[in-house]
Design a protein that fits this description.
Layout lengths: L9 E4 L9 H14 L6 E7 L6 H21 L7 E6 L4 H6 L3 E7 L9
Parallel strand pairs: 2-3
Antiparallel strand pairs: 1-4, 2-4
């Protein structure tokens, strides 16, 4: 997971139960893809939250649907699948899950530059 308190580089909103990305959300993802295009070491972390109210299987499916949609779209933008990582969070993040239902937080991860010792 990104550092605690880190702000996402993009938030992708989908209607609950939908995997369709609006033109605005596709544009946000295009900007993210463009931002890492020249940096082979950069990767993308997609974070979703498991909603409350259904069975465990249903909740996980509801959390995974938007993550899959965002990942698949990034792949169509030529971001290699190996550079896209997904994570779903559940009960430990209930307040965030309520607020961010059907949202995907997108974090661009860049490794720290090596430290040269002289």
């Amino acid at each position: 997971m990104p550092a605690k308190g880190a702000k996402p580089d993009a938030i992708i909103k989908l209607r609950p139960g939908s995997s369709n990305l609006s033109a605005e959300m596709r544009l946000r993802l295009q900007r993210v893809a463009d931002s890492i295009a020249g940096d082979e070491r950069a990767s993308i972390r997609l974070v979703g939250y498991v909603p409350e109210g259904g069975s465990s299987a249903w909740n996980i499916g509801e959390a995974e649907r938007p993550l899959r949609a965002v990942k698949q779209y990034l792949e169509t933008l030529r971001v290699p699948a190996r550079r896209i990582h997904t994570a779903s969070f559940g009960d430990e993040h209930k307040s965030v899950a309520r607020r961010n239902r059907a949202w995907v937080e997108v974090f661009v991860l860049r490794p720290a530059p090596p430290i040269s010792v002289r």
